[in-house]
Amino acid sequence: MTRSNAALLVLLVCLAALPLFGGAYALRLGTIACMYAILALSWNVVGGLAGYPSFATAAFFGFGAYATGVLLNMGLPLSLTILLSFVTSFLLAGLLGAVLLRLRGHYFAIASLSLVEVLSELVNNATDLTGGGMGLNIPLASGSGIMADAMFFFYAMWGILLATAVTVIAVSMSKLGFGLSCIRQNETASGMVGLNATLYKSIAFGLSACFVSAAGGIYAAWVHYIDPSDVFDVLYSVKPIVMALMGGLGSPIGVVAGAFLYFGLEEVVWRNYIQIHSGVLGVLIVLLLLFLPHGLISLRPGMFRRKAKHV
Amino acid sequence: MSEGASEILHLDNVSRRFGGLQALRGVTLGIARGEVLGLIGPNGAGKTTLVNTICGVTPASGGTVTFLGKNITRIKTYQAARLGLSRTFQIVQPFAEFSALDNVAAAALFSQPGESLTSAREAARAHLAFVGLEAQATQPAATLTLAMRKRLELAKALAMKPKLLFLDEVNAGLNSAEVARATKLIHELAAGGITIVMIEHLMKVVLNVCTRIAVLHNGQLIADGAPRDVIKNPAVVDAYLGQQYAQRNAAGV
């Protein structure tokens, strides 16, 4: 394991101590931060490693949220519903990936974006099952007090983040990660050396969906009420890409750092400039990408000293 | 030529159409085990298309391709690679960010079942040494010179343990010292028992290396046989070599 991957695991273990230092508000922030990190790490598998710019994150986030919501309403326990939406979204994304990932570049981006709309419309129209545009109420999972609930959902989201990180690190060190990297660099040559690119891309797409779906499920159980415009919000597709770019494409710790930085900026800007928060956030992101084009990961000790020599 | 037991590859009436363009017209050709076949012809004759058709990049629109007794007409490129059909590209196709070593390791890793990343890198080192790139093992492929990238292509193709190797203009763009070096490598490969099909424009190299020549013109096979006979064939002189070459050749220059 490389040093940066080990650092990522240490960072996540430290994050688990958050409840010792903060109240319900800190836990809420921590839960969202973990959720963002899951989305960004997942996107990184297909976008960063395989080089396919997917906008389908929101589709699987919404899929997981609704799958969990509907199953919870049927009386299944939360752990089982999360597991089911995890597995089904992996299979669904794998199948869709085999078709969608034949497209490349902009074409793939548009097709993956349309997936969000398609699922959103399906949910909107399946009124009997999902409540359609009226949204879906989800029974309280525990109801044993505000702090206990906040703690529970924080650790649930954190657990999924840890599983995502371990999986992504394992993938990046494996034959699969090596193959995805080949596909990103030269897909024609990948086929010529005997790499089954369709299979690899499908697995990558499946992996980029299943943890997102599980996070969507936790989110649904956490907020007790979901509707299509909330969980199929295209911002869930765009934000992970921005986070990954801010942190450093392809590097797991960079992506997680990017997610935390993005979320920090979002929260600070939102609290201080409520009227113009999207505008301010946009300017900050543009500035960051202009001055750190390779993301936070390029900020290494000694970098400024080296630069000074060439001035 | 009839399909015999000694044939490694057999094309039967293979054609390929791209919209209104008939790139290959009924090509029937057998390749014997251990042979070094030169595939020549003018630009646009269909040489690369023929290789692409065999390797599954652009499957045949008609006819059948048989490799080691197995019908591979509709095969996918990665399956062809695993069966032992490997090729180099006329326009080199490296994994640009990977080191030379990892480029070759990728070829070994994905073409051989059960290979691990560690054992693939091990094998890659030997192939890099064979083509004389051991000093560049850690260098990203994007930083190699054209001659080195062509040799890297060759190392990648060899790492796939090919039974049949297609060399698509490995000498194009190289200077004469580099051509001599590449020719020597091809001789060594042929001596090692790999069946080779080479697309080549340098007739000196073709006559030096090949045991047989096939000539394509407008997607049709117009000649096939021993090198000395083929270059005297009037149809080949007309379509490709030109009168000047034939006269110089006849004069023994």
Task: Write structural notes for this entry.
- The complex is a heterodimer of chains A (311) and B (253).
- With 311 residues, chain A is mainly α.
- Helices cover 77% and strands 1% of the residues of chain A.
- Chain A has a two-stranded antiparallel sheet.
- In chain A, helix 4 packs antiparallel against helix 5 (78-100) and helix 13 (235-247) crosses helix 14 (252-272).
- Chain B has 253 residues and is an alpha/beta fold.
- In chain B, 39% of the residues lie in helices and 25% in strands.
- A 6-stranded mixed sheet of chain B has the order 6-7-8-3-9-10, sandwiched between helices. In chain B, strands 2-1-4-5 form a 4-stranded antiparallel sheet, with helices on one face.
- In chain B, helix 4 crosses helix 5.
- The chains are: A mainly alpha (311), B alpha/beta (253).
- The A-B interface holds A 174-175, 178-179, 181-182, 185-186, 188-197 and B 55, 57, 76-78, 81-82, 86-87, 89, 93-98, 102, 106-107, 109-112, 116-117, 156, 160.
